[in-house]
């Protein structure tokens, strides 16, 4: 039984490693082969084949429900019903439409839409909107999250921006929506959004600083309804029945164990229903149901069986769950606790078990966090040691009971006031811990050092006295495995995917330079969200120079976040910046790092901010790269006049490929072999312009576009070609 479930689970899990989805014919052949193996000694192989076939079929159905390529970027009138809780942000409202339809095209069943400065929208309402739709897409950077995979796992077939709309069918406020509004109106010491997150699973109202504190302390799971909350509510009911039975207060005619398991499951399902029954909640309820069934009838079969059964059931219900980091974290955490606590001799006191559980989880989840690219909280064991029981005892029970008793005047509000006070104290503590020790974003590891970290963690979690256990601590030193250095005379260039903006990292053997810092508008700072984490994952500990081409927000917006997050020795700018002291860009400045030559240029007579961009020319072993910022036709002519030998090999597309740049004379004189375009997908500026694209093609230039390929990598001086993150084959990236 265990062997079959294990093989079936492996087949279901292989979905995340398939580069190309097999055709229907191959799937049918796989099903036939699996069915033929079942009656033979090869039956585990048959289970594996059937699991793989089911996972691929489920994924193909989700792929088939994505927006047609011909509709990408088009604006359509469509109508659908709002599902889930719409999220109100500072910019507008974000919501999901289900059963969307249009007279002009066939649409996916589920859309995610944003409406800037949009009206109030309630769950259950039907809206007719004009929306610009896009196929699922997202920024794609080295070792970063893959939004396309996440949208596919949630069965989102298209995303879009609403231009106009009208309500076609009003409904009475959805009970969850109405309850959220009621919770947000209570007096809870300013923690109303936190209570809504705990009770309803709606974390959209949490402030940015609160999310940062939760992430830095490894306590995000406390405010996002997960298996811990479901298990806690179920455990309280189970413990209540068990205690009543132990004290002789439970009716003798009612067997206490079936009642305890049944009431625990009902409580968990009720809480899951209250929280909206999202995918993580469904997964937690399924896992709990399996554990309760094991406790009721199959406890003699061991502790690993319910985990394996829960894993298999969850994947059979939703194979695409394996594409989400939360899936791996939740199952890995349970497996680690079973591995560390099962079969130990002797009894631990409760406080000993609790403290050991925290460091066990911290060490055991380290390889999973590294593999998923998530930050590692060094303070998580200490923070969770205090925060988990605090939320479990002082916050969640009064929050749930207060919500239930809201109809009783004064009682429900009083309990929520107490829960808010407890939550306020918790956030004050977490903010202090986060300021003391922010989250660590470790450099990405190759497969060899990562396997050493896995083995080291497993050894450390063995019982004391086991031979070679201490060797695990030595193996964890692979976390700091040195990255192969850039050869002398070459420079590694990363043009990051930051949408409609620019950020280019250049690394020689011993020096690092960042050209532009990505865009920022309001609270949406890609310098903080994308550029800074990517630099850390690439192993950048500090910058010798940050060069900001000019002051436009799409180039300079992320500069403040970079300076706060990394040591920066020097900042040069084409223009003055408000919050960052910069040295002016001087056309005469030249220097060499590790055999690579750099030179600056700026058109002093430029009349616009774009034309005053600071331009960087990089030369490595005869191969030249020009980072041109947003210069336009006038600055291009001036640059040609200032350089006797204007030939270059690689060009960063000036002004994202705007029609006002990349002139015929400039391209003819520089004769680049390739161009690196940084732009947002379906951007409102129309970059790159069709005339410019045609010009690039006419001169035989190889075009590389971050909107299509993700982040781009070039080793200047190696005379090689450009690599891209998007070319790493994944079935969900196939256009």
TrEMBL record:
The keyword ATP-binding does not apply. It is a multi-pass membrane protein. It comes from the Bacteria. This is DNA internalization-related competence protein ComEC/Rec2. Residues 500-681 form the Metallo-beta-lactamase domain. NCBIfam families: ComEC_N-term, ComEC_Rec2. Keywords: Cell membrane, Membrane, Transmembrane, Transmembrane helix. SMART domains: Lactamase_B. It is found in: Cell membrane. The lineage of its organism: Bacteria, Pseudomonadati, Pseudomonadota, Gammaproteobacteria, Pseudomonadales. The chain crosses the membrane at residues 230-249, 256-274, 303-321, 327-347, 359-380, 386-408, 415-435, 447-466. InterPro entries: ComA-like_MBL (IPR035681), ComEC_N (IPR004477), Competence_ComEC/Rec2 (IPR004797), Competence_DNA_uptake (IPR052159), DUF4131 (IPR025405), Metallo-B-lactamas (IPR001279), RibonucZ/Hydroxyglut_hydro (IPR036866).
């Amino acid at each position: 039984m265990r062997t079959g479930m294990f093989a079936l689970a492996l087949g279901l899990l292989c979905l995340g490693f398939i580069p190309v989805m097999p055709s229907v014919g191959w799937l049918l052949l796989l099903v036939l082969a699996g069915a033929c193996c079942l009656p033979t000694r090869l039956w585990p192989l048959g289970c594996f084949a059937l699991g793989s076939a089911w996972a691929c079929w489920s994924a193909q159905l989700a792929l088939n429900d994505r927006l047609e390529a011909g509709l990408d970027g088009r604006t359509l009138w469509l109508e659908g019903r709002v599902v889930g809780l719409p999220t109100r942000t500072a910019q507008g409202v974000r919501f999901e439409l289900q059963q969307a339809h249009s007279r002009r095209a066939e649409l996916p069943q589920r859309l995610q839409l944003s409406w800037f400065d949009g009206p109030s929208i309630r769950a259950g309402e039907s809206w007719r909107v004009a929306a610009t739709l896009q196929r699922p897409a997202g920024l794609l950077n080295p070792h970063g999250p893959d939004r396309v995979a996440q949208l596919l796992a949630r069965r989102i077939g298209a995303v879009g921006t609403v231009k106009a709309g009208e309500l076609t069918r009003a409904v009475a406020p959805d009970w969850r929506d109405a309850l959220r509004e009621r919770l947000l109106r209570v007096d809870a010491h300013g923690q109303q959004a936190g209570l809504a997150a705990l009770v309803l699973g709606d974390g959209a109202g949490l402030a940015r600083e609160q999310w940062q504190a939760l992430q830095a302390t490894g306590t995000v799971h406390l405010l996002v309804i997960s298996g811990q909350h479901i298990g806690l509510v179920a455990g309280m009911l189970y413990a209540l029945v068990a205690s009543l039975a132990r004290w002789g207060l439970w009716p003798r005619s009612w067997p206490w164990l079936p009642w305890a398991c049944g009431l625990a499951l009902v409580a968990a399902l009720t809480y899951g229903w209250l929280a909206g029954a999202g995918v993580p909640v469904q997964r937690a309820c399924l896992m709990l149901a399996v554990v309760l069934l094991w406790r009721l009838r199959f406890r003699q079969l061991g502790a690993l069986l319910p985990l394996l059964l829960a894993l298999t059931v969850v994947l059979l219900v939703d194979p695409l769950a394996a594409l989400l980091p939360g899936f791996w974290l939740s199952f890995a955490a349970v497996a680690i606790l079973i591995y560390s606590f099962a079969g130990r001799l002797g009894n631990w006191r409760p406080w000993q078990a609790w403290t050991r559980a925290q460091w066990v989880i911290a060490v055991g989840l380290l390889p999973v966090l590294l593999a998923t690219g998530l930050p590692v909280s060094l303070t998580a064991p200490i923070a969770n040691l205090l925060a988990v029981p605090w939320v479990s005892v002082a916050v969640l029970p009064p929050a749930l009971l207060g919500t239930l008793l809201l109809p009783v005047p004064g009682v429900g509000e009083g309990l929520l006031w107490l829960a808010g006070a407890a939550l306020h104290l918790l956030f004050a503590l977490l903010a202090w811990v986060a300021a003391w020790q922010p989250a660590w974003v470790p450099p990405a590891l190759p497969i060899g050092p990562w396997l050493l970290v896995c083995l080291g963690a497993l050894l450390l979690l063995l019982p004391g006295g086991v031979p070679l256990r201490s060797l695990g601590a030595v193996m964890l030193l692979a976390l700091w495995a040195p990255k192969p250095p850039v050869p002398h005379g070459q420079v590694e260039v990363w043009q990051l995917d930051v949408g409609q903006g620019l950020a280019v990292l250049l690394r020689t053997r011993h020096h690092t330079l960042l050209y532009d810092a990505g865009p920022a508008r309001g609270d949406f700072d890609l310098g903080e969200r994308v550029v800074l984490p990517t630099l850390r994952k690439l192993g950048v500990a500090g910058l010798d120079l940050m060069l900001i081409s000019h002051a436009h927000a799409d180039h300079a917006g992320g500069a403040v976040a970079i300076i706060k997050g990394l040591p920066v020795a020097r900042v040069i700018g084409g223009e003055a910046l408000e919050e960052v002291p910069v040295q002016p860009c001087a056309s005469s400045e030249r220097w060499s790092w590790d055999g690579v030559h750099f030179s600056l240029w700026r058109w002093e007579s430029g009349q616009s901010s774009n034309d005053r961009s600071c331009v960087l020319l990089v030369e490595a072993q005869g191969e030249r790269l020009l980072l041109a910022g947003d210069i336009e036709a006038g600055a291009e002519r001036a640059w040609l006049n200032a350089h006797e030998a204007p030939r270059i090999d690689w060009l960063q597309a000036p002004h994202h490929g705007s029609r006002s740049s990349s002139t015929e004379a400039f391209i003819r004189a520089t004769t680049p072999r390739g161009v690196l375009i940084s732009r947002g997908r379906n951007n409102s500026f129309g970059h790159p312009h069709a005339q410019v694209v045609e010009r690039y093609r006419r001169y035989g230039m190889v075009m590389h576009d971050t909107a299509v390929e993700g982040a781009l990598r070039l080793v200047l001086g190696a005379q090689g070609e450009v690599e891209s993150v998007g070319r790493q084959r994944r079935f969900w990236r196939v256009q």
